[in-house]
Design brief:
With about 375 residues, the protein is mainly alpha-helical. About 80% of the residues lie in helices and about 0% in strands. It folds into two domains: about 1-185 and about 285-370, no CATH class; about 200-280, no CATH class. It has helices at about 1-10, 15-30, 35-45, 50-95, 100-125, 130-145, 150-170, 200-215, 220-230, 240-250, 260-300, 300-330, 335-345, 355-370.
Length: about 375
Protein backbone atom coordinates (compact mmCIF):
# COMPACT_ATOMS: atom_id res chain seq x y z
CA UNK A 1 0.00 0.00 0.00
CA UNK A 2 1.29 3.42 -1.02
CA UNK A 3 0.58 5.18 2.30
CA UNK A 4 2.41 2.49 4.27
CA UNK A 5 5.38 2.68 1.90
CA UNK A 6 5.64 6.46 2.15
CA UNK A 7 5.18 6.38 5.90
CA UNK A 8 8.23 4.10 6.06
CA UNK A 9 10.61 5.90 3.67
CA UNK A 10 9.40 9.52 3.43
CA UNK A 11 12.23 11.40 5.14
CA UNK A 12 12.70 15.16 4.93
CA UNK A 13 9.56 16.80 6.32
CA UNK A 14 6.31 17.95 4.65
CA UNK A 15 7.90 19.40 1.50
CA UNK A 16 9.62 16.09 0.76
CA UNK A 17 6.47 14.09 1.59
CA UNK A 18 4.44 16.21 -0.84
CA UNK A 19 7.06 15.77 -3.55
CA UNK A 20 7.08 11.99 -3.12
CA UNK A 21 3.28 11.89 -3.16
CA UNK A 22 3.20 13.89 -6.38
CA UNK A 23 5.69 11.50 -7.95
CA UNK A 24 3.62 8.45 -6.97
CA UNK A 25 0.00 9.52 -7.46
CA UNK A 26 0.32 11.96 -10.38
CA UNK A 27 3.36 10.95 -12.44
CA UNK A 28 3.53 7.20 -11.87
CA UNK A 29 0.05 5.94 -10.96
CA UNK A 30 -2.09 8.68 -12.58
CA UNK A 31 -4.60 8.60 -9.73
CA UNK A 32 -4.98 12.39 -9.83
CA UNK A 33 -4.30 15.12 -12.32
CA UNK A 34 -1.82 17.83 -11.34
CA UNK A 35 -4.72 20.25 -10.78
CA UNK A 36 -6.60 17.81 -8.54
CA UNK A 37 -3.43 17.21 -6.55
CA UNK A 38 -2.79 20.93 -6.10
CA UNK A 39 -6.40 21.53 -5.04
CA UNK A 40 -6.01 19.01 -2.25
CA UNK A 41 -2.64 20.44 -1.30
CA UNK A 42 -4.18 23.91 -1.03
CA UNK A 43 -7.03 22.58 1.10
CA UNK A 44 -4.55 20.80 3.38
CA UNK A 45 -2.53 23.98 3.84
CA UNK A 46 -5.62 25.96 4.87
CA UNK A 47 -6.62 23.86 7.88
CA UNK A 48 -4.71 23.18 11.10
CA UNK A 49 -2.70 20.01 11.43
CA UNK A 50 0.11 18.24 9.52
CA UNK A 51 -0.37 19.25 5.87
CA UNK A 52 1.36 16.26 4.28
CA UNK A 53 -0.62 13.81 6.43
CA UNK A 54 -3.85 15.59 5.52
CA UNK A 55 -2.87 15.39 1.85
CA UNK A 56 -2.41 11.62 2.20
CA UNK A 57 -5.84 11.41 3.84
CA UNK A 58 -7.38 13.48 1.02
CA UNK A 59 -5.90 11.12 -1.57
CA UNK A 60 -7.20 8.11 0.37
CA UNK A 61 -10.69 9.61 0.33
CA UNK A 62 -10.43 10.37 -3.39
CA UNK A 63 -9.43 6.79 -4.17
CA UNK A 64 -11.64 4.76 -1.83
CA UNK A 65 -14.13 7.01 -0.04
CA UNK A 66 -14.46 6.99 3.73
CA UNK A 67 -12.62 3.68 4.28
CA UNK A 68 -9.76 5.00 2.16
CA UNK A 69 -9.66 8.20 4.23
CA UNK A 70 -9.14 6.24 7.45
CA UNK A 71 -6.79 3.56 6.10
CA UNK A 72 -4.53 5.98 4.20
CA UNK A 73 -4.06 8.20 7.25
CA UNK A 74 -3.37 5.35 9.66
CA UNK A 75 -0.92 3.63 7.31
CA UNK A 76 1.03 6.84 6.81
CA UNK A 77 1.23 7.62 10.53
CA UNK A 78 1.80 4.13 11.96
CA UNK A 79 5.38 3.36 10.76
CA UNK A 80 6.73 6.66 12.08
CA UNK A 81 4.84 6.28 15.35
CA UNK A 82 6.36 2.83 15.91
CA UNK A 83 9.87 4.06 15.07
CA UNK A 84 9.52 7.06 17.38
CA UNK A 85 8.24 4.82 20.19
CA UNK A 86 11.32 2.62 19.82
CA UNK A 87 13.58 5.68 19.89
CA UNK A 88 11.74 6.98 22.96
CA UNK A 89 12.35 3.64 24.71
CA UNK A 90 16.06 3.89 23.87
CA UNK A 91 16.12 7.50 25.05
CA UNK A 92 14.56 6.62 28.41
CA UNK A 93 16.78 3.55 28.77
CA UNK A 94 20.13 5.08 27.77
CA UNK A 95 19.56 8.82 28.26
CA UNK A 96 20.43 9.85 24.69
CA UNK A 97 19.36 9.38 21.08
CA UNK A 98 20.83 6.71 18.81
CA UNK A 99 23.18 8.13 16.18
CA UNK A 100 21.32 9.17 13.04
CA UNK A 101 23.60 11.89 11.70
CA UNK A 102 25.07 9.72 8.93
CA UNK A 103 21.67 8.80 7.52
CA UNK A 104 20.56 12.43 7.52
CA UNK A 105 23.80 13.55 5.92
CA UNK A 106 23.09 11.39 2.87
CA UNK A 107 19.31 11.71 2.73
CA UNK A 108 19.01 15.51 2.89
CA UNK A 109 20.63 16.27 -0.51
CA UNK A 110 18.43 13.63 -2.17
CA UNK A 111 15.38 15.20 -0.54
CA UNK A 112 16.30 18.58 -2.08
CA UNK A 113 16.32 17.00 -5.54
CA UNK A 114 12.93 15.36 -4.92
CA UNK A 115 11.43 18.66 -3.79
CA UNK A 116 12.83 20.52 -6.83
CA UNK A 117 11.34 17.95 -9.19
CA UNK A 118 7.91 18.36 -7.59
CA UNK A 119 8.24 22.16 -7.63
CA UNK A 120 8.92 22.13 -11.37
CA UNK A 121 5.81 20.06 -12.00
CA UNK A 122 3.63 22.09 -9.59
CA UNK A 123 4.71 25.42 -11.08
CA UNK A 124 3.88 24.32 -14.62
CA UNK A 125 0.35 23.45 -13.50
CA UNK A 126 -0.38 26.19 -10.95
CA UNK A 127 0.94 29.16 -12.96
CA UNK A 128 -1.70 29.23 -15.66
CA UNK A 129 -1.13 32.82 -16.81
CA UNK A 130 0.96 35.92 -16.21
CA UNK A 131 -1.41 37.13 -13.51
CA UNK A 132 -0.89 33.99 -11.42
CA UNK A 133 2.86 34.28 -12.02
CA UNK A 134 2.79 37.77 -10.47
CA UNK A 135 0.69 36.47 -7.56
CA UNK A 136 3.28 33.74 -7.03
CA UNK A 137 6.11 36.27 -6.94
CA UNK A 138 4.20 38.49 -4.51
CA UNK A 139 3.36 35.63 -2.15
CA UNK A 140 6.96 34.40 -2.28
CA UNK A 141 8.07 37.89 -1.22
CA UNK A 142 5.60 37.80 1.68
CA UNK A 143 6.94 34.43 2.77
CA UNK A 144 10.53 35.67 2.55
CA UNK A 145 9.50 38.61 4.76
CA UNK A 146 8.48 36.11 7.48
CA UNK A 147 4.74 36.65 7.02
CA UNK A 148 2.79 33.78 8.61
CA UNK A 149 2.14 30.91 6.18
CA UNK A 150 -1.62 31.22 6.65
CA UNK A 151 -1.41 34.93 5.85
CA UNK A 152 0.50 34.17 2.64
CA UNK A 153 -2.10 31.61 1.53
CA UNK A 154 -5.02 33.89 2.36
CA UNK A 155 -3.34 36.76 0.51
CA UNK A 156 -2.94 34.65 -2.63
CA UNK A 157 -6.51 33.36 -2.48
CA UNK A 158 -8.04 36.75 -1.69
CA UNK A 159 -6.29 38.60 -4.51
CA UNK A 160 -7.23 36.05 -7.17
CA UNK A 161 -10.77 35.76 -5.82
CA UNK A 162 -11.34 39.52 -5.85
CA UNK A 163 -9.88 39.78 -9.35
CA UNK A 164 -12.26 37.09 -10.60
CA UNK A 165 -15.21 38.84 -8.92
CA UNK A 166 -14.34 42.10 -10.66
CA UNK A 167 -14.07 40.33 -14.02
CA UNK A 168 -17.38 38.55 -13.44
CA UNK A 169 -19.10 41.72 -12.28
CA UNK A 170 -18.21 43.45 -15.53
CA UNK A 171 -19.74 40.63 -17.58
CA UNK A 172 -22.52 38.97 -15.53
CA UNK A 173 -24.11 39.38 -12.09
CA UNK A 174 -22.06 37.80 -9.30
CA UNK A 175 -23.27 34.39 -8.16
CA UNK A 176 -24.21 35.02 -4.55
CA UNK A 177 -24.25 31.30 -3.78
CA UNK A 178 -20.58 30.84 -4.67
CA UNK A 179 -18.81 28.85 -2.01
CA UNK A 180 -15.91 30.27 -0.09
CA UNK A 181 -13.42 27.69 1.21
CA UNK A 182 -14.16 26.80 4.79
CA UNK A 183 -11.42 28.19 7.02
CA UNK A 184 -11.44 26.95 10.60
CA UNK A 185 -9.47 29.85 12.02
CA UNK A 186 -10.66 29.63 15.62
CA UNK A 187 -7.60 29.83 17.82
CA UNK A 188 -7.38 29.50 21.57
CA UNK A 189 -4.58 30.34 23.94
CA UNK A 190 -2.78 27.15 24.84
CA UNK A 191 -2.36 26.82 28.58
CA UNK A 192 -3.59 25.29 31.77
CA UNK A 193 -2.60 24.45 35.27
CA UNK A 194 -0.14 21.65 35.93
CA UNK A 195 -1.74 18.32 36.71
CA UNK A 196 0.02 15.65 38.73
CA UNK A 197 -0.02 12.76 38.25
CA UNK A 198 -0.64 13.04 34.54
CA UNK A 199 -3.80 11.24 33.53
CA UNK A 200 -4.18 9.74 30.08
CA UNK A 201 -7.37 11.66 29.32
CA UNK A 202 -5.60 14.92 30.26
CA UNK A 203 -2.71 14.05 27.96
CA UNK A 204 -5.14 13.18 25.19
CA UNK A 205 -7.01 16.47 25.60
CA UNK A 206 -3.79 18.49 25.48
CA UNK A 207 -2.76 16.94 22.17
CA UNK A 208 -6.23 17.21 20.65
CA UNK A 209 -6.12 20.91 21.48
CA UNK A 210 -2.72 21.34 19.82
CA UNK A 211 -3.72 19.32 16.75
CA UNK A 212 -6.81 21.50 16.38
CA UNK A 213 -5.02 24.85 16.29
CA UNK A 214 -1.45 24.43 15.02
CA UNK A 215 -1.19 25.68 11.46
CA UNK A 216 2.27 26.11 10.00
CA UNK A 217 5.69 24.52 10.08
CA UNK A 218 7.38 22.31 12.63
CA UNK A 219 8.76 25.44 14.23
CA UNK A 220 5.21 26.59 14.95
CA UNK A 221 4.52 23.18 16.50
CA UNK A 222 7.63 23.60 18.67
CA UNK A 223 6.29 26.90 20.01
CA UNK A 224 2.93 25.38 20.94
CA UNK A 225 4.53 22.33 22.55
CA UNK A 226 6.89 24.51 24.61
CA UNK A 227 4.03 26.66 25.87
CA UNK A 228 1.87 23.68 26.75
CA UNK A 229 4.30 21.13 28.20
CA UNK A 230 7.25 23.19 29.45
CA UNK A 231 5.86 26.57 30.48
CA UNK A 232 2.33 25.80 31.67
CA UNK A 233 2.32 22.18 32.73
CA UNK A 234 5.96 21.52 33.54
CA UNK A 235 5.76 17.96 32.21
CA UNK A 236 8.98 18.30 30.16
CA UNK A 237 12.28 20.14 30.24
CA UNK A 238 13.35 22.25 27.28
CA UNK A 239 16.09 19.71 26.50
CA UNK A 240 13.57 16.86 26.41
CA UNK A 241 11.31 18.87 24.11
CA UNK A 242 14.14 19.64 21.69
CA UNK A 243 15.14 15.97 21.65
CA UNK A 244 11.51 15.06 20.90
CA UNK A 245 11.37 17.50 17.98
CA UNK A 246 14.69 16.14 16.68
CA UNK A 247 13.29 12.61 16.66
CA UNK A 248 10.24 13.83 14.72
CA UNK A 249 12.58 15.39 12.16
CA UNK A 250 14.93 12.43 11.65
CA UNK A 251 12.29 9.70 11.32
CA UNK A 252 10.24 9.22 8.15
CA UNK A 253 6.59 10.16 7.99
CA UNK A 254 4.85 13.10 9.66
CA UNK A 255 6.85 15.44 11.91
CA UNK A 256 3.88 15.51 14.30
CA UNK A 257 5.01 12.12 15.62
CA UNK A 258 7.01 14.32 17.99
CA UNK A 259 3.85 13.89 20.06
CA UNK A 260 4.47 10.13 20.24
CA UNK A 261 7.89 10.73 21.80
CA UNK A 262 6.50 13.23 24.30
CA UNK A 263 3.65 10.91 25.24
CA UNK A 264 6.13 8.09 25.92
CA UNK A 265 8.27 10.32 28.12
CA UNK A 266 5.24 11.34 30.17
CA UNK A 267 3.26 8.08 30.45
CA UNK A 268 5.18 5.31 28.70
CA UNK A 269 3.70 3.21 25.84
CA UNK A 270 0.10 4.11 26.76
CA UNK A 271 1.02 7.78 26.72
CA UNK A 272 2.67 7.40 23.31
CA UNK A 273 -0.50 5.83 21.91
CA UNK A 274 -2.83 8.42 23.44
CA UNK A 275 -0.67 11.36 22.34
CA UNK A 276 -0.44 10.06 18.76
CA UNK A 277 -4.20 9.60 18.46
CA UNK A 278 -4.86 12.97 20.07
CA UNK A 279 -2.67 15.11 17.81
CA UNK A 280 -3.70 13.40 14.55
CA UNK A 281 -7.44 13.00 15.21
CA UNK A 282 -8.35 16.60 14.25
CA UNK A 283 -6.63 16.13 10.87
CA UNK A 284 -9.06 13.33 9.97
CA UNK A 285 -12.01 15.53 10.96
CA UNK A 286 -10.79 18.54 8.98
CA UNK A 287 -10.18 16.45 5.86
CA UNK A 288 -13.55 14.72 6.18
CA UNK A 289 -15.26 18.11 6.04
CA UNK A 290 -13.10 19.78 3.40
CA UNK A 291 -13.02 16.72 1.10
CA UNK A 292 -16.80 16.87 0.73
CA UNK A 293 -16.75 20.60 -0.05
CA UNK A 294 -13.75 20.62 -2.39
CA UNK A 295 -15.47 19.48 -5.63
CA UNK A 296 -18.23 22.07 -5.12
CA UNK A 297 -15.62 24.76 -4.48
CA UNK A 298 -13.82 23.98 -7.72
CA UNK A 299 -17.11 24.18 -9.70
CA UNK A 300 -17.66 27.75 -8.51
CA UNK A 301 -15.89 30.29 -10.73
CA UNK A 302 -15.02 32.66 -7.89
CA UNK A 303 -14.13 29.98 -5.35
CA UNK A 304 -12.10 28.20 -8.02
CA UNK A 305 -10.14 31.41 -8.59
CA UNK A 306 -9.50 31.63 -4.84
CA UNK A 307 -8.21 28.06 -4.92
CA UNK A 308 -5.93 28.91 -7.86
CA UNK A 309 -4.41 31.73 -5.81
CA UNK A 310 -3.94 29.46 -2.81
CA UNK A 311 -2.25 26.85 -5.02
CA UNK A 312 0.19 29.39 -6.42
CA UNK A 313 0.95 30.65 -2.90
CA UNK A 314 1.52 27.05 -1.77
CA UNK A 315 4.06 26.55 -4.54
CA UNK A 316 5.78 29.82 -3.58
CA UNK A 317 6.02 28.74 0.06
CA UNK A 318 7.34 25.33 -0.96
CA UNK A 319 10.05 27.04 -3.05
CA UNK A 320 11.14 29.04 0.00
CA UNK A 321 11.28 25.86 2.08
CA UNK A 322 13.39 24.18 -0.61
CA UNK A 323 15.84 27.10 -0.53
CA UNK A 324 16.10 26.94 3.27
CA UNK A 325 16.56 23.16 3.24
CA UNK A 326 19.18 23.40 0.53
CA UNK A 327 21.32 25.79 2.57
CA UNK A 328 21.46 23.31 5.45
CA UNK A 329 21.67 20.10 3.40
CA UNK A 330 24.35 20.94 0.84
CA UNK A 331 27.40 21.69 2.95
CA UNK A 332 30.40 20.16 1.14
CA UNK A 333 31.55 18.44 -2.05
CA UNK A 334 29.96 15.10 -1.17
CA UNK A 335 26.50 16.51 -0.45
CA UNK A 336 26.77 18.67 -3.58
CA UNK A 337 27.54 15.55 -5.59
CA UNK A 338 24.66 13.66 -4.01
CA UNK A 339 22.24 16.47 -4.82
CA UNK A 340 23.42 16.70 -8.42
CA UNK A 341 23.34 12.93 -8.93
CA UNK A 342 19.87 12.78 -7.41
CA UNK A 343 18.58 15.47 -9.76
CA UNK A 344 20.00 13.63 -12.79
CA UNK A 345 18.44 10.37 -11.59
CA UNK A 346 15.03 12.01 -11.11
CA UNK A 347 14.82 14.31 -14.13
CA UNK A 348 16.69 12.16 -16.66
CA UNK A 349 16.19 8.55 -15.60
CA UNK A 350 12.99 9.07 -13.54
CA UNK A 351 14.21 6.86 -10.71
CA UNK A 352 11.63 6.07 -8.03
CA UNK A 353 12.12 8.41 -5.06
CA UNK A 354 12.00 5.50 -2.59
CA UNK A 355 15.07 3.84 -4.13
CA UNK A 356 16.81 7.19 -4.25
CA UNK A 357 16.27 7.74 -0.52
CA UNK A 358 17.57 4.23 0.25
CA UNK A 359 20.78 4.71 -1.78
CA UNK A 360 21.33 8.16 -0.26
CA UNK A 361 20.89 6.80 3.27
CA UNK A 362 23.41 4.02 2.67
CA UNK A 363 25.86 6.53 1.17
CA UNK A 364 25.46 8.75 4.22
CA UNK A 365 26.11 5.83 6.58
CA UNK A 366 29.28 4.85 4.73
CA UNK A 367 30.80 8.26 4.03
CA UNK A 368 29.00 10.62 6.37
CA UNK A 369 30.81 9.87 9.64
CA UNK A 370 34.05 11.44 8.50
CA UNK A 371 32.35 14.43 6.89
CA UNK A 372 30.21 15.64 9.80
Amino acid sequence: MLSLKLGTIAFGGPAAHIAMLQDEVVRRRHWLTETEFLDRLGASNLVPGPSSTELVIHIGYRRAGWPGLVVAGICFILPAALMVTALAWAYVRFGSLPAVAGVLYGVKPAVIAIVLQALWSFARTAIKNRWLFLVGLATAALGAADVNALGVLLAGGSVTGLWQMLKQKRSTPINRTALVPWLPLLRRVIGGAAVAPVKLWTLFGAFVKIGSVVLGSGYVLLAFLHTEFVDHRGWLTTRQLLDAVAVGQVTPGPVFTTATFIGYLIRGPAGACVATIGIFLPAFVFVAVSAVLLPRIRRSVIAGAVLDGINVASVALMALVAWQLGRTAIVDWLTSGLALASMVALFWWRVNSGWLILVAAITGLIFGRGAI
